[in-house]
Amino acid sequence: MDCRLGCGACCIAPSITSAIPGMPNGKPAGVRCIQLDNDNLCMIFGHSDRPDVCADFSASIDVCGTTNQQALWLITDLESSTC
User: Fold this and answer.
1) Strand partners, 42
2) Bridge-partner residues for 16, per DSSP?
3) How far apart are CA 16 and CA 27, in angstroms?
């Protein structure tokens, strides 16, 4: 499965503990990553300072569902069940 351009759920729902440019302490779950632009596209995609956890993420139907809203719900649910 390819990521849906403009979804951004994986950049909003999960916590990220590694440093992100502009967010040196990472980000808590449910907080929009500072590197998302107004179209929910990652501004550091492909850059060396992008966190490994972001670069390693692979979209899948069980995590991303079939809509952006479903992806946000599913990833939020996964995040809350792993805390």
Assistant:
1) 36
2) 27
3) 5
N- to C-terminal Cα separation, the chain? 26
- Look at the alpha carbons of 31, 36, 42, 48 in this order and tell me if their dihedral is positive or negative: negative
Determine if the pTM surpasses 0.85: yes
Domain edges within the chain: 1-83
CB 20, CB 32: distance < 8 Å: no
What's the angle, vertex CA 4, arms to CA 11 and CA 22, rounded to 5?
25
Q: What does the pLDDT profile of the chain (83 residues) look like in tens digits?
A: 999 999 999 999 999 999 999 999 999 999 999 999 999 999 999 999 999 999 999 999 999 999 999 999 999 999 999 86
Task: Write down the number of H helices and E strands in the chain.
Answer: 3, 0
* 42's tokens: 């990652």
